[in-house]
Design goal:
binds FE3-S4 cluster, Rossmann fold, binds S-adenosyl-L-homocysteine, binds iron/sulfur cluster
Length: 440
Amino acid sequence: MNERASVGCRPRVYLETYGCQMNIADSQTVTAVLRRAGYDLAEKAEDADVILLNTCAIREHAGERVLGRLSDLARMKNRRPEIRLGLLGCMAQHNRAALVEKAPHLDLIAGPDSYRRLPEMIGRAGFDPAVDVRLDRAETYADITPEHDGSIRAYVTAMRGCDKFCAFCVVPYVRGRERSIAPADLLREIAELAERGVREVVLLGQTVNAYRFGEVDFGALLRMVARVAGIERIRFTSPHPSDMTDSVIDAMASEAKVQPYLHLPVQSGSNRILAAMDRGYTVEEYLRLVERLRAAIPSLALSTDIIVGFHGEERRDYEETLALMRTVRYDQAFTFKYSVRENTRAYKLGDTVSEEEKSRRLAEVIALQEATSLELNRASIGSVFAVLVEGPARRGEGMLSGKTPQFKTAIFPALGARPGDTIKVRVESATAHTLMCAAV
Ligand code: SAH
Ligand code: SF4
Ligand code: F3S
């Protein structure tokens, strides 16, 4: 490729995103900010004048991946010293001091509330990196329309930050205080997305159901979004169990567009550990919530997040997590080994479960979940689901993929269907992660 890719034309920026959906949505905001400032997007790092990594700090492993990638990019910068290399996002916020020291090739370090200032930070030539990691209680980027990627699903940030301060978690420190975006701004953005072909919106927030703007709570917001013409499916992630009010449950039960799927992170099945994590609920309260949800929304699918090996987790605590999983029978679970994070409240407590034991517990949790997912998916063989078509399936010529209302991946023959269509399919066979279907 041309060594000086953009001499004489608009400068090109390459943006790589790590972490959760909030980061994916933030990268779309960053893209919009940079377009406004005259940048074009590059498809790969080699073609870019500016390379930005939007990073995640949730577990140590997330940071290690980025540091590995940064050392590759540092070698590229040695060959082409004119490139500007920047680190954005949660890791920028979390590790700024260490980064300035350890990554001298970085030209800029910008936290999640600093993206408006990116063009001037990129432009600032200098020996020291431009660092901006001020957290801003007021920043919501409400006036910036994120650049959507053209798919039929769009992620829309409804609230930023988190006030929960779970003992293990860096998010409140790297994303700052909770703030909700005005309903009018959200509805305008969603209506624009619908006009451009989006059929499904996923409302985002670290505790998205804590959303509140004046009189509008999250249940009311769901009802408002359901009135937007062209939007057929509404989802949201992640709700916190403590904020799962009747208003939200009623909106899920009564608004047909709000899909029967909920990601409801539990973290542990032991009351002792939940208290140490400061999650704000007991196992009994969580199970009662699951009962209320299932009574209100009979076709509901549930997924969760589980951490094994948190500080002080004994074998019996962990067995209670397995027992809870057997009771709830989640459709899917995202499972993690506890990773001690600096600055969090659990940091000074340290690690009490060995790496080997964490791995053993994790493997067992995963095996139980795989078995449950498989059983539940197999039980749906013969059932008919409405699937919103997304695009070609990864494997299989002439096959398409899409999601059922319960957010399960369905694979089915194309038969003329196009992305954005909703079609009926019948499940013919199933794995733990996929439903193989035929057209009805
Ligand atoms: N706001 C969401 C979770 C966001 S982080 C919620 O409260 O539900 C996504 C998941 O990462 C968490 O649910 C948790 O299971 C996991 N996680 C967060 N911090 C972690 C840590 N220090 N070690 C291991 N897993 C962690
Ligand atoms: Fe982290 Fe807890 Fe906030 Fe979720 S609710 S982002 S786990 S502090
Ligand atoms: Fe990671 Fe930040 Fe999301 S820490 S999980 S990218 S909010």
